[in-house]
Amino acid sequence: MSQPDLKGEINAAAVEPLLPIEKKLIGWSLGTGIVLLIVLIVLNHFVPITL
Amino acid sequence: MSDLAVSASENVSEPAALKARLNEDWLAVAIGLLVFAAALVSVSGTDVLGWAVTTSVYTDLTQALNPFAKAYAWLGGGGSLLLTYAALLVVLSAGVIALGADVRKFAIAFTAVFAIAYASWILGSYAYIAAVTPAEQQKFGLSWSLKLTNEGGFIVALLSGLVIANFFPRFAEWLKEAIRPELYIKIAIVILGATVAVTAAGRLNLASSLLLRGAAAIVEAYLIYWSVVYYISRKWFGFSREWSVPLASGISVCGVAAAIATGGAIRARPAVPILVSSLVVVFAVVEILILPFLAQTFLWQEPLVAGAWIGLAIKTDGAAVAGGGITESLILAKAAAEGIKYQPGWILATTTTVKIFIDIFIGVWAFILGYIWTNHIDKGPDKAKPSEIWQRFPKFILGFLFVFAVSLWLAVGSTPDIAKALPAAAGEANIFRVIFFILTFFSIGVLSDFRKLWQQGFGKLAAVYFVSLFGFVIWVGLLISWLFFSGFKPPLVS
């Protein structure tokens, strides 16, 4: 069965620079995530867990 | 995916390869819905899937196999296994005909694939491999066990496939018509919708109480973990986008399902997310052996923090829930030794709830990535049309969402009788989910030449996983779990 040379590809492939859209994706994800976490932590303070 | 699919993506024109993939997606939806519908019949009182084979942890092999329903006990374990094989053969052969493949070759190869894969699963349920808790060890009279849970059978199946791929290449070539991990895993994910819905419905009070905490888990997994792991993979290790997306999803979200869903969404070659998935499984097994004991040692005074942490740190559903169970038994034992007797069930419920919340958004995240890739990264000569976004969307996720929605409605919006009968129906469907997982892991092994990958490529993938998991994911997960769950303890036994 033919098998793509994945290991050679992993190590030999030219580095793809981060595109602006990727930087945006990373930045917005991380920024939004941190802001949302802070909001949730504040909410958590006012809405305590009930079992 | 079969090796044929890999070849197709490289040698055949894109429309043909895309069409083949879409056909496989829809086939997965059809078979998944067929299993779900058949399982639902049992709600009416007619059990049409109760003959499906289940495997228990055993020391006596003759006790290992049984039909799911007692009504079919007359079949015995062997009869139930044969019937399960025959049913799968008929349904999958019909599907393979729809895909235009050679059904005779498939039927012969599938017979061998099923036999070896299920034998691996049975081996994985051997008590010396699977028994986890001291109570289980005591039940089977064991002084030790590998504590892999019966899901260690997945690893055995993977290893069986690897042995065949690396030492018996001609046999692997002979099996190739039935080596279709992508089809198998997609069917399994569609079926999984019922189990996820029933679990959520069964814990609605806790689930609603944990809504806020579930949202935190979603934010953490998708927005924080994913972006950081993607950055590490791309920037520090130089992986391409095709590798980094499934890798980030596998490490951050929910292992196999997320890697395959997002890999499909960005049109990665099928072999890429599958290899990432196998890595996730290996690490999940390592985690399940380590993290519960760390939780027992350091978090026994904060049981719910421990439960949430396990749900956030272990990246496959099965391993995470199993890890939650082990953690609960270890922590309850430790607390009891200190004179504190917590009610059982709460730690595991926390783990399960956190995991479910993360799982639900796999489809949404795959859609978001698919949209970005289609419109901004993998545009091709022509700008992508909105319809192409739909074309590239992994359709099996729709099957998962449909099964989830119907199951949840039946569980919480229908009559009490139906709601009561639904968990058993979902349990029957889940048997086939497990079997398709087994077939997936065996197929992954047969497709993978890990001798070469381990020398360089796989080691590099593992390095990303190791750095991300132990340098970031575990500790941030612990911090978030602490922030949201510390101070809240399970009720005490009265």
Task: Write a structural description.
The complex is a heterodimer of chains A (51) and B (494). Chain A has helices spanning 6-12, 20-46. By secondary structure, chain A is an all-alpha fold. The mean pLDDT of chain A is 79. With 494 residues, chain B is mainly alpha-helical. Helices cover 77% and strands 1% of the residues of chain B. Residues 1-18 of chain B have low confidence and may be disordered.
List keywords for this structure.
heterodimer, A: 51 residues, mainly alpha, 2 helices, 0% strand, B: 494 residues, two-stranded antiparallel sheet, 2 strands, globular, disordered N terminus
- Measure the end-to-end span of chain A: 54 Å
Radius of gyration of chain B: 22 Å
- Helix/strand order of chain B: HHEEHHHHHHHHHHHHHHHHHHHH
Low-confidence stretches of chain A: none
Q: Give start-end ranges of low-pLDDT stretches of chain B.
A: 1-18
First-residue to last-residue Cα separation of chain B: 53 Å
- How many distinct helices of chain B? 22
Overall form of chain B: globular
Content-based structural category of chain B: mainly alpha
Strand order of the largest sheet of chain B: 1-2
Oligomeric category: heterodimer
Biggest sheet details of chain B: 2 strands, antiparallel
State the share of residues found in helices of chain B, binned by percent.
over 70%
**Helix coverage percent of residues of chain A?**
55-70%
Q: Give the biggest sheet of chain A.
A: none
Mean pLDDT across every amino acid position of chain A: 79
Beta-strand fraction estimate of chain A: under 5%
Number of strands of chain B: 2
User: In sequence order, what are the helices and strands of chain A, one letter per element?
Assistant: HH
* Tally of alpha and pi helices of chain A: 2
Strand content of chain B: under 5%
